[in-house]
Records
---
Amino acid sequence: MGRTSIVEIMGVTSLVFTDPGTPDTRGPLRYLYWLGRRQPRRVLTGTTLSTVWMVLLMVPPYLVSRAIDDGVRARDTGALLGWAGAVLGAGVTLAVLGTLRHRTMTMVRTDGLYRTVRVLTRRVVELGPALPRQVAAGEVVAIGSADIMTISHVLTVFGPGVGAVFGYTAVAVALLGISPLLAAVVLLGVPLLVVSIGPLLRRLQQADARYRGLQGELTARAGDIVAGLRVLCGIGGKDLFAGRYRDRSRVLRAEGYRVGAVTSWIQALAVGMPLVFLAVVTWLAARMAAAHTITVGELVAVYGYVAVLITPVSFLIESADDLGRALVSTRRVLRVLTLTEDIPDHGTRPGPRGQADLHDPVSGVRVPAGSMVALVATRPGDAVAVLDRLGRFTDSAATWGGTPLTEIALDEVRRRILVADNDAYLFAGPVRAVIGGGDVRPALRIAAAEDVVEALPDGLDSVLDDQARTVSGGQRQRLRLARAVHARPDVLLLVEPTSAVDAHTESLIATRLHADRQGRTTVVAATSPQLLARADHVIFLSDGTVAATGSHAELVRTQPRYRGLVLRGDEDVDQHHVVGDLR
Amino acid sequence: MRLPEADRAAVRAASMRLVREDRGAALVVLLLYGLAAAAGLGLPWLVGVLVNRVESGAGVSAVDRLVPAMAGFAVAQLILERSARYAGHRFGERALARLRERFVDRVLALPTAVVEHAGTGDLMTRTTNDVATVGVAMRDAIPEILISSVRALLVAGAAVLLDPVLGLCVLSGTPLIVLTGRWYLRRARTAYLAEGAASSELSEGLAATATGARTVSALRLGEQRVAIGDQAAVTGYHTRVRTLWLRTVLFTMTDVGRYLPVAVTLVVGGLRYHADAIPLGVVVTAALYANQLADPLDTVLERMERLQTAGAAMSRLTGVHGLPLPPAPDPRVPESDVLEVRAARFAYRPGHNVLSDVDLTVRPGERLAVVGPSGAGKTTLARLLAGIDAPDSGQVTVGGVPVATLPAEELRSRIVLVTQEHHVFLGTLRDNLAIAAPGPDDRHGDRHDDDAFRKALATVDAVWVAELPDGLDTVLGAGGIALDAAQEQQLALARVVLLDPHTVILDEATALLDPATARHAERALGAALHGRTVIAIAHRLRTARDADRIVVMRDGRITEVGTHPELVAANGAYAELWRAQTGTA
């Protein structure tokens, strides 16, 4: 047990506590080579073990043949016991070698698997906002679930591959010792046999791909039914969906029959063809035995060799297939690894000390140091664009305390300026950690999210899943706000932080947020009158540029379009659409 | 509420049912497997016969006479093996299709309240992952286990028939394999489940980091995400070491169990040959059988772990069948469109009343707004009114009949609840509307409904429909056109228009939309609601202001009822909220 744990610790150390290294991203083969080079000793051990194991597989048939010839037929009990003991000894050796081989290979795969994930995670983190701009997140998700497995799997092709070649050679030598004719038949016949299944394998792959496609579609359909089950319960259409599902299920079943037709041939041939071949070889060998060219023991040995030879040859064929699929998967991984950041981080100047004015030349928005400013835009996207520029999620000429944001180190910008989106991601974990750790109660109070936590079974220790799917939309929004407030950045840029919150709660949040941000810079893109009324001043953007600035009350009085936008339903023409029809 | 899992007996009964329903085919499959395995015994036996002939000095021609038999056995095994596998595969596909269709039917038959309370997450896992797991087992693991079991039995049987003493020798490795197998299987399921869970944790962590990449950057969570990923790798590593340890024991012992009987058979067979008890051919054949027994036993052990996992999945699938069916519908037909709540009380957890002593009469055609702070019980009231839940005590009736007991179709032709959660189904726009207008044969998309669909879309101001590439045939959702939130809302409302209920309950229907979008959606709402009774749960009081009556709720009770001017004049909770919202404090 003691040894196991030392091995384990060493394994973990090399796997996780060290830097995963810088991958070679110049091509899929280079990447795979790099993964192998990270663990040279393990790969070498694996190759050696595989080779020895494969060669030794040929030993038992030989020992059995000697036991029969020298022990049984020669009526020599001592030799019989000796050779039978050797069979058992070889068996135990093979068992141990085979297991060690499997263990080493599993470790090679594990290393490759986790190294790839760790390299990917680090790259994704570095890319940050550049990632969603360049690839769909779904692509990375697919890599994380399927591709990494394929890649790790192929890492163990090399060792056994070498072993298979040696194994094949060993049989060739053994057979040549018995009869050149048999050697020729077996050595040429076995590869032909395996290759002959090739075309069927391709057909199977095609049928299987169709089947998987249909299966995925059917699963998606079932998932869709469950996801929309509330709608189906409320609106109806259950029979419609049940019928559709059944139709598609029958199509899949029919496709399954087609896959079965091919698979069953392959499985039967995989067993049957070697048997036919074995029958031929046995017949040839038996004729030689009858003519006393070879012994009975050798006849049995030939039978054993043919059976054993199928292992390395099928392995080589499978490997070619594995390698093909692994290259495709590796290309997908490399696509993410080779993406480039689109917000260059060349800044060297320090940011302003303490609070400072923010300026966005594109829109003309100016945010005085330490104040709370609200942004109202005729097009909602415009306010968000301003915040993205001020928070440097897009590069622009925006300045902070007169220094262009592009000249300040990105890390400082991120540390001191926080853009809090309404659809920001909530990562899984205990509530306390989701909010940011430490004493999160004040932030929860400001976001009026105390009741969200109280309703959870273990309070702050309750574990939320990714995107906090178990709580309602309004509750999620308040958790996001609490997280942003808890970060206490010098500049907080908020996007519609209370759109899903009821009026009473919104009023609490507006008051508490204003008090909390006293003396620090805050910009809120919002249309809620309560938030607007609390802001030190409001900037009204029309078509992306500043149209008016003033207090909420002033703008309501002087700007009809502003009034229309923020007091909709109260004094606006839209009132007739919304409430007029309600009347 | 958690969805139940079925016990072993129920799982066994459900599995047996799948076999029983296709009994004839099952018997044929077993028979073919048996014949194929029997044919596989022929060649080692013939090798023994050959050895005997060679030993007795028979010439080459005696060997040649066995050629037809050898070829016959090999070809027979090939063909039997193929037929058996194919029949087995078809049997598995049929059973799997029945299983998944029945499961989806059952999911669709779940009472609304169960769906609402259990959520769809667990159900989703069962529908997708568990069905797939059982499917893999049915297609691969179960046939392999069956074939290998039959083969092992026949090899053992043939060896005993050949020579009882050598038969026992052939079986000498079996106890080792069986005991190790038991040891392994007792631990395998937990260990492999842990490994699987760690793998999904790892890929979900990476998925979250990728999906939330922008947030990672904004909140500087990079190091934390890397640490979480590394931690998942450590966990994963330990689970893999654990399963590797299990395989270390299993593989070593089964390999020893493969060679041990060969050695034993050689020694015992050799000694008996020396004693002239048996011919040499029998020794050879027995040694070959001894070597042949290990493979099927290995296969059984390795696949058993899959079968265990499939058993767990099956118990989750079968568990859903144990859920209640919707109550027998009330045969009474509502006499009027009047919705009445009498002394209603409701609790999700016993002792924690969410609604207490609620009395309310909704007059046909009126516009009723329900306001109050979060947690006041507004949504629960909406669910009782919509018939999703029945009150624990008291009554919620429409035209004198309890709402929750109305048959589903009857209910939705009268009362429809619209929430902020929408769903666009995979399929065409027409499919998405057809659910609200089930025709006699709408599985194939009835064309004569198209006019009604277009009218409903026009009613809710869905002008974007005109820009869709294929009109009503445009594919929506994944792989098709993605609708934005407001368009989804309009689609939901168009369904309401098609259903044409007399009462619509809106639960914060536009709350999650951004203001500009909400404005558009609310416009559509106005049109969709024309001429109906409307109960609007609102957090924006402006929606409430112009309602015919406003119901103010707090702590599960109705505290105030009246028109906007009345309530403002009353200077109660509503007036306070109103001042807070409009900033006229």
Note: The longest strand of chain A covers residues 372-377.
---
Amino acid sequence: MTAASLLAADPLLAGKVDLAVVLIVALKAVIVLAFLLVATMLMIWFERKVHADMTNRIGPNQAGPFGILQSVADGVKVFFKEDLLPDRADRFVFRLAPFLSVVPAFLTFAVVPIGGNFSDADGGVIELFGHRTLLQLADPPIGVLLVLAMSSIAVYGVMLAGWSSGSKYPLLGSVRASAQMVSYEAALGLSTVTVVLVAGTLTTSGIVAAQHTWNWNLWATGIVPFVVFLIAATAELNRPPFDLVEAEQELVGGFHTEYSGVRFAMYYLAEFMNTVTMSAIIVTLFLGGPNGPVLVGPEWLWGIVWFFAKLMLLLFTFAWFRATLPRFRYDQLMDLGWKALIPLALGWLLLMIAIRVGSDEGWNPILVMVVGVAALAAGYALLVLAGRTARRNRELAGAHL
Amino acid sequence: MTLLATVNSDVPFNVAQNVGFGVIAVLMVTGALRVVTTNNVVHAALWLVLVLAGAAAQFILLAAEFVAITQVLVYIGAIVVLFLFGVMLTRAPIRGEAGLTRSNWFGGALVGVLLLGLLSFTLLDTFGGDRLPADTRLTLRPAAVSQAEGTEPTAGSNVGAVSDSIFSRYLIPFEAVSVLLTAALIGAIVLARKE
């Protein structure tokens, strides 16, 4: 009884759980694993190609057609490299840390609906081998919170790698990285809350179902949470322009300086896997997931097609960021996170709540908007005032020195 | 709830749940002992993560997935991360330190045992004779599930039930805790910026 309600809103697990159901779940798990690995390898190739094109280079072009097998070649090479263990390392934690980076990326992808027919009231349920099911590995009632929890667990992988290496640069890199990830998690969470508020549910399938008929959260939440989420996600992924974690000229290689061979490959893989997963999460939360017009052919196929089209768009955007934006300075990074993104996400959330309460209570929507915006402006003025006072105090203190 | 299930004759004894409880409980107790006995601060924090994850797993066994994920988000994802962050910013030798165990450790152990006794007594005294209510929120099912089972759809989930009780019945304690946390936050800033 409770097991079904806990594990999933998935109708597959609702009735009697027989061998066929177990096999379907196992099949889904294998597909998700294989898909994520292949997508990650292709993403590495894709990003190198896009980056090369944008900087007027050719990029990988030797292994396979268009160099598409380059990641496979790199993977094989890295498997045969020596797996170094620094003398002063904490052996157990040093070995554990890469897994803490890779596993959350996989777990996050389990809650992403990668397809399904959301055009009717059925909420994405399709037929698979005579069983009604959702096209996602798991649909826990706490879907979005799982995503946030996993992104906070990924901090451990970075943090422990730096500490357990027993050397200076990794430690500095990991302190930087974890401070950055912890700071931007708040903005990430606050912009997700806006989505949850609009959708009225925490499950990822519910959020996607709430966005059908072009009611995408991108505009239903008013663009701002999407922008905040995109920036915060880029920082959370330690991708350029927020890649201070591995600023080579300052830190050698960042938290994974001492890693080599397969363990280094795991960090490399985790970085790109997290990019794919985070893009999938953005598609789910803001871009309607597998929602889209059904053109010709079976309905269930178009869900997958639209999902992949949106995913590709976001992956291209991330590659684009990498090729065009220069790296932030550390104080700029912290200023952006704490003084711009978090207040903006929080203020926007409050505004959306005010509008929602106003429409529930039947208040005049224009009045609600005006009062809300005025309150936000007052809050912003206070924030600016506080910032100025702090700066003046700092300058005064500096003058005494 | 696991305890309750054994008392209540209407609910069958759930073997898998109880075995799971036992295994996780052993892990948690071991982890808790290692937290206080290890002489490496970072290892202590990691053992603490094991204990907290065990608590989250116990919540999942009780079908309280919202509390479980909150446990992971707040304790593992924020508090222990900040512990580790603080430790790394100050000092965290890889080899650990010898003098981490204080000479009056048995005083702390005594307090721990007293607390255990007090909590056990309170729980048993308050809930010991309780039975699972007939209309338990645990059996709430999402609409899709009940549709497939052909049963009456029960609106909401545990998440809804938790938020309903927080924002209606326990609103004042909830707000009081929020104010307390804000006060602690401001206090921390004032202490850190004292000039």
Note: The first strand of chain A starts at residue 125 and ends at 128.
---
Amino acid sequence: MKRIAVALLLVATACSGSATTGGGPKGEILVFAAASLTESFTAIGSVFERAHPGAHIRFNFGPSDGLAAGITEGGGADVFASASADPMEAVARSPGVLDRALFARNRLVVIVPRDNPAHIGSLSDITRAGLKLAIAAPGVPAGTYTRQMLEKAKLTLHSAPSNEVDDKSVVQKVVLGEVDAGVVYTTDVSPSVSSAVTIIVIPDVVNVLASYPIAVVAGSKNVSLARSFVAYVLDGGRAILRAAGFLSPT
Amino acid sequence: MNREGERAVVAPPRGVLVLAAFGVAFVVLPVAGLAIRAPWSDLGSLSSHGARTALGVSLVVTGGAVALALLFGLPAAIVLARGRFRGRALVRGIVLLPIVLPPVVGGIGLLAALGRRGLLGRPLEAIGIRLPFTTGAAILAAAFVATPLFVLAVEGGLRSIDPRLEQAASAMGASRWYVLRRVTLPLLRPQIIAGVVIAAARALGEFGATITFAGNIAGRTQTLPLSVYQTLQSDPGGAILQALLLVAISLAAMIALRGRLLSP
């Protein structure tokens, strides 16, 4: 959290000059965001609120595919930030999106509990039989990327992994020491969990880069605030995203 | 309620006692595990903004769900226990379905009924009401899982009331409303209280239907169980403390109930 807090302060002071004018969109919006964005978007939201008095940002964090289904079936979202293209495609079909743009990329890593009970030293070690593995379920962006990465590395798992609802649940299982290894995003290893796990880097040649699109959801009751938040994520929010370990979108 | 069980009873055989010890341990062990893992020195984190907000949402949602269970569940129980109509077994089965249904399925059903493209969602949207991902949605999700338990408790009570009491009142010229208000409901009081407590405990713990239909929005739909789930990802210790808070509230409710659920 420390890195994010510093970035937050920097951005806050940078914004405070323009914030006093008082204009700009007001009201409340609901942002549906991928679970992997929990820490950084919470930080971006509070900096944005400080820079825009009268504006309130609420978040609904969860697996991107579930959020997309919620938006399509339930509505109510003003902004959607997804961890991959497919859920955004689904929302673009119904109810539709505006101002769609890529705002970050993420990279996969293997994490093991600090005491590394299964002595895992490289990516190929996770294919061993008899391991307890946790990866995100197929269909969840993190799960899809994990499977693409394994295919790219020509690796086959010889122990059936536990399919978790999202990447954050994988982190949780590793932090608690309930599994020998898990595959998550670099950014999931936030300062609050980094002391409990060891990171094993996945070589760039086989790694898969996750691209994060963001957009205003059609039918939003406060399009001006939603647009202004999306613009902020693409601009002022970058420092916070970078501090959390995200890569720039291009 | 009745204290007969505390008088002259034949003690159960020793074998039953041993198995009973396992049965109790089965429930006690996970709770003990939580208590042992809990970072008690961080107890102050329970008063953090996030935890307090979640507790507040939980209380509003539980209160709302219990109100709905009373408003609609009580009449439903009366009709199921006293009504004579075809298909009663079917209606009863449907009303009690949420007890055995996975809550996530309930959440999807609520979206299909009240969502943007849902059965009732479309006309509601036309008059400017959008339910999913609001506190109202969290209340409905909790009511969906809690109401059947209330109905079950009250219906059992109704069946145990001697019908001659109601018949006597009726024969002396009391109207149906009068019989219901002055005879049936007072006799039902213990079961209504039991039903309220068990429905409240269930509503308090609701997770699956809530996250599906109402989302996980801090200050609006993020109840204590959802907060436990989200906190577990970044702060396992804090999550355990919140979980123990839930355990304490539910345990207090169950103790308050004592044997009421069993009494006729």
Note: Chain B is about 70% helix and 0% strand.
